[in-house]
Amino acid sequence: MSLSAEQVRQVAHLARLEIQPEQVEHYAGQLSRILDVVGQLAQANTEGVTPMAHPLAMVQRLRPDVVTEPDRRADYQAHAPSVQDGLFLVPKVIE
Amino acid sequence: MNSNTWEAVIGLEVHCQLRTKSKIFTGAATEYGAAPNTQADPVTLGMPGVLPVLNHDALQMAVKFGLAVDAEVAERSVFARKHYFYPDLPKGYQISQYELPIVGKGHLDIELPGEKGGEPVVKRIGITRAHMEEDAGKSLHEAFPGFTGIDLNRAGTPLIEIVSEPDIRSAAEAVAYLKKLHQLVVYIGICDGNMQEGSFRCDANVSVRRRGTEKFGTRTETKNVNSFRYVEKAIEYEIERQIEVIEGGGTIIQETRLFNPDTGETRAMRSKENANDYRYFPDPDLLPVVVERSQIEAIRATMPELPEAKRLRFVTQYGLPKYDAGVLTGESELADFYEVVVKSSGADAKTCSNWITTDLLGALNKLGKDITTSPITADMLSGMLKRIVDKTISGKIAKDVFEAMLNGEGDADTIIKAKGLVQITDDSSIIATIEKVMADSPGQLADYRSGKDKLFGFFVGQVMKATQGKANPDAVNRLLKEKLAP
């Protein structure tokens, strides 16, 4: 399976990765080879097999609905680049 | 809209916050209104190395919802990551469910007004699915020039997203569906239903097509409309807008729109490029959720009577008109209040209903209170009705007792005693008053006896006045008839 240069740019954008224009073809080749390896799975007969959601054959444990986490805002915000009035400040995003 | 030419096709996505104490995947509190970020722990903040663990009660509530809409509850469901970048979502993905949601196909019946005032029509709205997910945080754009403030208290609050089939055909139907759904989630105790606080929010998918065509038109999605009235306005606006665009030769673009309550209009959000490329995949931090059939049945056994069933029971068990039953079963607390009163007072079912639906709800409305904060408890109202039943007071005097109870003057017996409101039922005392009234009104007496029957009311009024309303009305009527006869 081969990935086009456009698809590489698209995936990089969605993942917020900056790649140089001259690297695009290089990554397209590498990623296509990875897809080829994974693509071998398509040859397996999966008729009637439940899709695997997790490699461990276990089920989710549940926790009781109890508040266990205290307020430690000051600690958690100590390493934030910018805070004010208890809010994290980030560059303006408008929708 | 020209309803002969165009038909709207509407589907709703409702986000309903589950009423848990802690978040869906961590033990941080979910209480509304806390100071910013005081309920944001490392899991909420998306710190490296943390692991989500599913809240038992959130799962139970999702299952309850499934049972309430008669849906298939999945014995095995899977959490998936939905990826997008926005600062109110620190991990860069929202944990949601995608291919295997907890609740599958179900339905909700809504009641619509019949044509030309006829019998109401029941319409079934399909529910496609409902899945569990975590809420995002809140962004504050106004307060800081050049910056957006982020409060992550809400991030990680458990939600179910309830997706309807595109079975809805008008804004009015959409509102009827939402109200029914809102009532249901509050009834079964999984959501506080507070729309101002965002506990129950709606996105509306709207498209139009020429009547008679099968194919759906291109739809738009209007986001986060948080009142019934706004939903109605937003949908009406969107239907009109789409028809105008198409009739003007344009085409509808599939896009996300925002409703502005100040103008009543919707506008396109700046389109996020490839916004819908969420790259879902199963979350490796969470194992498949298994709810065994026996557990589902155990949850079913804890389900309260649903609003529709209760309404029908009120009609058959108490013989109430459908309207009364509808009002009384509108909220489960109100229905419980009624049942206490009707069972303990000994008054007839319709009388109890009248006192509650007219007098009590009217008074509470004026006071800005609801049935849970009513100054008159079910026992107090029942105590008052008992005194009507045993003829201690008349229905008319009861109105005064009711007012006094509302003002916090105590229960009915205390008030009746303090104000000397005990009804006069003793014939001889009433006869004495009647004789005095007759002596004081010779002209009216003569007119009545010569055939002016209408004057009977005059005498009743005079006797009631003379006894300050305390004479038993039945006795007054009976004795007056005897005395006034020529």
From TrEMBL, chain A:
It comes from the Bacteria. The lineage of its organism: Bacteria, Pseudomonadati, Pseudomonadota, Gammaproteobacteria, Nevskiales. The gene is gatC. One of its GO terms (biological process) is regulation of translational fidelity. GO terms for molecular function: asparaginyl-tRNA synthase (glutamine-hydrolyzing) activity; ATP binding; glutaminyl-tRNA synthase (glutamine-hydrolyzing) activity; transferase activity. InterPro entries: Asp/Glu-ADT_sf_sub_c (IPR036113), GatC (IPR003837). Keywords: ATP-binding, Ligase, Nucleotide-binding, Protein biosynthesis, Transferase. It comes from Panacagrimonas perspica. Its EC number is 6.3.5.-. This is Aspartyl/glutamyl-tRNA(Asn/Gln) amidotransferase subunit C. Belongs to the GatC family. SUPFAM superfamilies: Glu-tRNAGln amidotransferase C subunit. Heterotrimer of A, B and C subunits. Coiled coil: none annotated. It catalyses: L-aspartyl-tRNA(Asn) + L-glutamine + ATP + H2O = L-asparaginyl-tRNA(Asn) + L-glutamate + ADP + phosphate + 2 H(+); L-glutamyl-tRNA(Gln) + L-glutamine + ATP + H2O = L-glutaminyl-tRNA(Gln) + L-glutamate + ADP + phosphate + H(+). Allows the formation of correctly charged Asn-tRNA(Asn) or Gln-tRNA(Gln) through the transamidation of misacylated Asp-tRNA(Asn) or Glu-tRNA(Gln) in organisms which lack either or both of asparaginyl-tRNA or glutaminyl-tRNA synthetases. The reaction takes place in the presence of glutamine and ATP through an activated phospho-Asp-tRNA(Asn) or phospho-Glu-tRNA(Gln).
Automatic annotation (TrEMBL), chain B:
Pfam families: GatB_N, GatB_Yqey. PANTHER family: GLUTAMYL-TRNA GLN AMIDOTRANSFERASE SUBUNIT B MITOCHONDRIAL AND PROKARYOTIC PET112-RELATED, GLUTAMYL-TRNA(GLN) AMIDOTRANSFERASE SUBUNIT B, MITOCHONDRIAL. Its EC number is 6.3.5.-. Residues 336-484 form the Asn/Gln amidotransferase domain. GO terms for biological process: glutaminyl-tRNAGln biosynthesis via transamidation; translation. Allows the formation of correctly charged Asn-tRNA(Asn) or Gln-tRNA(Gln) through the transamidation of misacylated Asp-tRNA(Asn) or Glu-tRNA(Gln) in organisms which lack either or both of asparaginyl-tRNA or glutaminyl-tRNA synthetases. The reaction takes place in the presence of glutamine and ATP through an activated phospho-Asp-tRNA(Asn) or phospho-Glu-tRNA(Gln). PROSITE patterns: GATB. Heterotrimer of A, B and C subunits. HAMAP family: GatB (MF_00121). It comes from the Bacteria. One of its GO terms (molecular function) is asparaginyl-tRNA synthase (glutamine-hydrolyzing) activity. It is an enzyme of class 6 (ligase). It catalyses: L-aspartyl-tRNA(Asn) + L-glutamine + ATP + H2O = L-asparaginyl-tRNA(Asn) + L-glutamate + ADP + phosphate + 2 H(+); L-glutamyl-tRNA(Gln) + L-glutamine + ATP + H2O = L-glutaminyl-tRNA(Gln) + L-glutamate + ADP + phosphate + H(+). NCBIfam families: gatB, PRK05477.1-2, PRK05477.1-4, PRK05477.1-5. This is Aspartyl/glutamyl-tRNA(Asn/Gln) amidotransferase subunit B. Keywords: ATP-binding, Ligase, Nucleotide-binding, Protein biosynthesis, Transferase. Belongs to the GatB/GatE family. GatB subfamily.
